[in-house]
Every structure is written in structure tokens, then in C-alpha cells.
Amino acid sequence: MKRDIISVLDMRDDLDEIIDLSIRLKKNRYQSYDSAMNKVLGMIFEKPSTRTRVSFETAIDQLGGHAIYLNPHDMQIGRGETISDTARVLSRFVDAIVYRAFSHANVVELAGNSDIPVINGLDDKEHPVQIVADYMTLLEKRRNLSGRKLAYVGDGNNMANSLILGGAILGVDVSVACPKGFEPDRKIVEEGIKIARETGCKIEVLNDPKAAVPGADAVYTDVWVSMGEESEKEKKEKIFKPFQVNQDLMDAAGDMALFLHCLPAHRGLEVTAQVMDGPRSVVFDQAENRMHTEKAILLTLLS
Ligand code: CP
Ligand code: NVA
């Protein structure tokens, strides 16, 4: 049976194994694998991407396969062909699909009509593949994950949702601080709390950054204005100003705190240049780990 990764919950049973595999694959970067040999990855991107696109393309190439980048504007989907017909047709050509979409419902629809694995490459609800690299990075820097704490400061967006679920599954405490009205998806928070009860960690959503960060192993932030929200830029930049990750907030986190960001970053908005380019920032290791984790995901789904 084919397996999709639409949500972090689709990795609930083996997220730790996928991270372990990523660490092994990182040690042997140019090795190809029979299960990926000549496999073709279709990549539909409705929104821009640097990391997700290049890391998946490089990953499948190095594993022994090949990627096709598909811009919806150049496809019939841009002229009204349905997602379900597109899914059925692509299933006859390629071996897996990465889909970056505006709407989570479209990812679900594409997956539901495909005979091949579909990987969510970011939508308005989740960014599941990103958090595999994020927690891998934390593991590399801290040697274990269980009992660690990640503080997410900023918008309760797709990243916040996926980090909550990933932390809950891996036994990492996740403290989220967002402005009132910008909290993460309520159902996801409830699900995270439920899972955290089983794995022995804590998920909390607060409205005060200084209350969220003390004792954190990592302070994480993301853009205030996600792709597709450009019209809210002015309003959000005002509201989110007190949620900037700056040296003062990193000091409140304590000496252990690393700085993480999924990127792209906006220095002077969600993070200061001092923190982003400072000694505690591991954002470029985190970005590199996208490729190693995507290899692990591809091998897991294609094997
Ligand atoms: N972090 C991330 O997904 O970056 P891209 O938008 O460049 O793919
Ligand atoms: N929340 C951001 C993540 C970018 C990788 C967005 O959706 O634009």
C-alpha cells in the first residue's frame, strides 16, 4: 500500500526512525540506493521555494532517481483540469509527488486520487517535512530529544502546527508564544497535548514570549507573513513587533538556547541580525538537514 505524508501525524509511528536514518544518510552523502534507482519524483509547486525544491531535487538525484519540477501555471491544472484527474495521470508516470499548495484540502485531494506516495511540501496548515530537519538538527546538537524544550515565538502558522505535533511525538516540550488571535490550529494543539500525555512531554500555547523561552534548548521563529498572506503585511508587522527574537529574548531563554528558523528569514522583523548571524544560530545546518531528511523520507516511502 502506498503511504502519504500530508501531516506530521503520518510519521507518528516512525518519526524517530526517519531522523535516525537521516543521520546515517548524512554520513554517506553520495551513495545511491536500489529502491530509488530510476525513480521519478514529480514536484508541483504553487508557491515559491528555495530549500524544499532544491533539497528534494538533490536528494532524489543523489539517491539514484530524478525529479521533474512542475509549475501549475505551465500545467493544464492552471487551465481548469481537476486535481483528481491530474493525480490519476501523474500516477501513471512518476513514482512519488511533492506538492506545495495554498490549500491543505488540495493536498488531501491529490493524495486521495493518487496511486503513488504524496508528500506535503508545505500548505496553509502544515509543513511536515521541515520539522524532520528541525528536530534532526536539535538531536545533532543535543544528542537526545526526549526531555528537551523548544520555544516557538511568532505566528501560529503551518510551522507552529507541525512543530507542536513533531515535539509531542518525539517527547520534546513545545512552548508556543503568539499574539492573541494568532495561536496555532486549535485541533492540532489538542491533538498535540493528547500525544504529549503519552510521550511524557508538555505542549503549551502562551501569549508572552518571555514566559515561553526560559530553559529552552532552542528558540524557533518563522516569518510573520506567510506566503499567500501578503495583503496582511502591514497589520501583522505591527502586531508581531513584541514577538521579535532578539538578544534580550535569547538571554531570557538561557545559555543553552540555540536559534532555529526554517528560513527564509527577515532580519529586523521576526529576528535581529545579531541573533540570526550570531554564535547560537544553527539555521544553515538546519537548512542542510532538509536534504538528508528528505532522502530518508523518500527511501522510506519508495522502499
Ligand atoms: N523552509 C522552506 O520550506 O523553505 P523554502 O520555502 O525555500 O522551500
Ligand atoms: N510559514 C511560512 C513558511 C515558509 C517556509 C510560509 O508558509 O510562508
Describe the structure.
The protein has 303 residues and is of the alpha/beta class. The chain folds into two domains: 8-126 and 290-302, Rossmann fold (3-Layer(aba) Sandwich), CATH 3.40.50.1370; 130-286, Aspartate/ornithine carbamoyltransferase (Rossmann fold), CATH 3.40.50.1370. Helix content is 43%, strand content 14%. It is built from twelve helices and nine strands. A five-stranded parallel sheet has the order 7-6-5-8-9. Strands 2-1-3-4 form a four-stranded parallel sheet, sandwiched between helices. β5 (149-153), α6 and β6 (173-177) form a beta-alpha-beta unit. α1 packs across α5 and α5 crosses α12 (283-302). It is globular. It binds phosphoric acid mono(formamide)ester and norvaline.
Strand and helix order: HEHEHEHEHEHEHEHEHHEHH
User: Into which percent range does the helicity of residues fall?
Assistant: 40-55%
Strand content range: 5-15%
- By DSSP, the count of extended strands is 9
The overall average pLDDT, rounded, is: 98
Present as ligands are: phosphoric acid mono(formamide)ester, norvaline
**Rg, nearest Å:** 19 Å
Give a nutshell description of this structure.
The chain is α/β, with parallel strands linked by helices and 303 residues long. 43% of the residues lie in helices and 14% in strands. The site of phosphoric acid mono(formamide)ester has 8 residues, from helix 2.
